[in-house]
Amino acid sequence: MNKYPLYKKFAMTLGAYQNCLKVCNKEWEEKHYEKLIEYINELPHGSGIDGQATIDLEKSNVNKLIIHTAYHYMDENGYYDGWYSYKIIVTPSLQNDFNLNIVGKDTPNMAKECLYELFQEAFSNIEE
User: Fold this and answer.
1) 72 touches 91 (CB < 8 A)
2) Average pLDDT over every residue of 59-77
3) How confident is the model at residue 107, as a pLDDT?
4) Residue 128's pLDDT is what?
5) What residues contact residue 74 under an 8 Å CB cut-off, 6+ apart?
6) What is the DSSP secondary structure assignment for residue 52, as one 8-state letter?
């Protein structure tokens, strides 16, 4: 079996899921949806990324993945003080395999930089 990085597995499964929606194949639509949930569960979580990540199935397609996540930030005393929501956008790149864009308010502790590194590594990960 071929091994693919996570971003490709997301895109291929999303394409199959969307095709099943078009032809009303409920059995395989459900199987592909379950696989997408498995991939969501492979994304970074913990250490501030405490909310449940979700994929925007309406706005995502085989050339653009949109993942919603949240970062639980701390105040200067080390206590959790609130949440910032982020949109992780993955698009193809001829030079770098994929581009990663993170949209959302940045926190004083540079959450976007941390999220970028974590999600860049996660989407590049190759496992069976």
Assistant:
1) no
2) 89
3) 58
4) 60
5) 48, 80, 81, 109
6) P
